[in-house]
């Protein structure tokens, strides 16, 4: 039995994507250092690097699968994350590199919206929300 995917036409995906965007910014805000530039390697760095990859993936996949109005949303979220985190130039370069690598890799493989592309969006959205929540819970400032 084939599952009906209503999310790309105006249902659940928009809410999930909106929540992930909000959580990504929340992560950046709570994980940002209290005063000054973030340390070279933060304890949550692996999480942020993976989140950068997910944002790059969504930057390619969401518009590909018809998410109108999201042409720059995911890049803007990446920019907000970097601005809030205030990484060193080297660390910022690594974050941006992860975003771009993910975007380019998926752009080479996914040139149209397929069932696989939609499944990746679902997986990346869930993983990104979980990562962001984990960073907030484990390392958020109180």
Task: Provide a short characterization of the protein structure.
The protein contains 5 helices and no strands.
Task: Give an account of the 3D structure.
Helix 1 packs parallel to helix 5, helix 2 packs antiparallel against helix 3 and helix 2 runs parallel beside helix 4. The chain is globular. The longest helix has 25 residues. The N terminus is likely disordered. It has one domain. It is mainly α and 142 residues long.
Present the secondary structure layout.
Blueprint: H1 12-31, H2 45-64, H3 73-85, H4 89-109, H5 115-139
Helix pairs in contact: 1-3, 1-5, 2-3, 2-4, 2-5
Q: Quickly count the helices.
A: 5
Oligomer: single chain
How many strand segments?
0
Order of helices and strands: HHHHH
Computed CA radius of gyration, to the nearest angstrom: 15 Å
Helical content class: 55-70%
Shape label: globular
